[in-house]
Amino acid sequence: MRNPFKRSGSPNGPRANDREPSRYRGPRPSGTALSFNKLKIVAGIITFVVIIIFMFESVVVVEAGHRGVVLYVGAVENRVLGEGIHFIVPFAEQVIQLEVRTLKFEANATAASNDLQEVQTTIALNYHISPSQANIIYQQLGADYADRIIAPTIQESVKASVAKFNAEELITKRATAKALIAETIANTLGARDIVVETVFITDFKFSQAFASQVESKVVAFQKFLTEQNNLLAIQVIANQTVVQAQAAARANVAKANGESQAIQVITVQLKQSPTYLQWLSINRWNGQLPYALGSSAFPFFQLPRAIPLQNQTK
User: Fold this and answer.
1) Rounded distance, CA 197 to CA 134, Å?
2) Which 3 state secondary structure label does DSSP give 194?
3) Which secondary structure element, helix H or strand E, spans residue 36, and what is its range?
4) What is the CA radius of gyration of the chain?
C-alpha cells in the first residue's frame, strides 16, 4: 500500500516512468475538413435566407380599396390584381397599388365671361378611377394622374363653359352654368377612365367694380319697380273715376229718357183729358193754401162758387 504522505518522484519533478499514460482520443481532423464543414453551414444559412427572400418576393397583398398594377421587368402587364393575396414572379414582377375609392380634388379656376368680366371660382371634385382600367391609367398617366389630367381639365372646362355666359347670367343662371361645367369635366375625364361622381362649385367672384355696378343696377331696378307700381295705382284710380263718370252719365241719360217719356205721357193725357193737370195737382198737394189768391193769377184749383143767400131764401 502506497503511503499517502510520501512524496513521489524526485524533488526536481516527476520522473518519466512516473507519468500517467495518455488516453487515446482518435484521429485528429485536418484543417481542410473544418473549412468544409463551415462552408456547408454558411451555404445552408444562405439557402435558407434566399428561400425566405423568394417567399416574400413572390407574395403580394393588395390592400382594400386598391388595385394592383403588375409590372414585368418594368413593362405594364395586361392584368389588374384585386384585393387580397397574390403570387408573382419574384424579382421579375412588381406590383404598383392604385386607390380606387372615392377621392377628392379641389382647385381654383379663373376665367373670362362672354362680356370679358374676370370670374374666379373654386371647383371641388369627387371622383374615382375605373378599377378594371387601373393598368391603362398607370401606363398612360402614372401614379400622379390627378396633377397630370384632373387639374388641367378643371381649368380648361371652366374657361370654356364660363365664356358662354355673361357675368350677370352666371348669377341668374348659376344652376345652368354649374351643370355645363360639370358635364364638360365628366366627359373629358371619362374618356381617360376617370369616373366623376359629383362637382361642387362655390360662388362666382367678380371684380369690385363689377360688383358695385351690379348693386347699382339692382337698386335702379327696384326703384323702377316702385315707380311702376305707383303708376299702376294711379291708373287704377283714374280708371275708377272714368267708370264712375260713365256710370253717372248713363244714369243721367236714363233719367232724361224717363222724364221725356213722362212728358210724352202727360201730353197725351192732357189731350185726352184736360182736367188731368188738376187731378195731378190735387194728388200732389200738401194741404197748404198759397199765401195769395187773385183773379188774374192761375188758381191752384178752382174752388166752388158760393150760392147767394137771397137765392137760398127764395
Assistant:
1) 17
2) strand
3) helix 31-58
4) 63
Angle ∠(203,208,209) on CA atoms, nearest 5: 125
Residue 66 CB partners (closer than 8 Å, separation 6+): 83, 97, 98, 99, 100
* Residue 162, pLDDT score: 92
- Sign of CA pseudo-dihedral 34, 35, 40, 43: positive
DSSP 123: E
| C-alpha cell, 150 | 384632373
Q: Is the pLDDT of residue 313 over 60?
A: no
Cβ–Cβ under 8 Å, residues 131 and 100: yes
C-alpha cell at 230: 305707383
Residues 6 or more apart whose CB falls under 8 angstroms from that of 169 comprise 177
Q: What percent of the chain has pLDDT over 70?
A: 73
Nearest Cα residue to 178 out of 159, 161, 194: 161
The pLDDT, as a whole number, for residue 4 is 46
CA angle 23, 27, 33 (to 5 degrees): 145
Q: Strand pairing partners for 106? A: 124
Q: Which residue in this structure is represented by grid cell 389588374?
A: 80
Let me know: does 117 contact 169? Beta carbons within 8 Å.
no
Residue found under cell 365671361:
113
Helix (H, G, I), strand (E, B) or coil at 47: helix
Rounded Cα–Cα distance for residues 183 and 1 (Å) = 119
87: Cβ–Cβ under 8 A, 6 or more apart, which residues? Answer: 58, 59, 60
Of 4-13, 225-234, 264-273, the range with the lowest mean pLDDT is 4-13
CB 202 within 8 Å of CB 174:
no
d(CA 29, CA 52): 34
**Averaged pLDDT, 270-295:** 65
Say which amino acid occupies 234: I
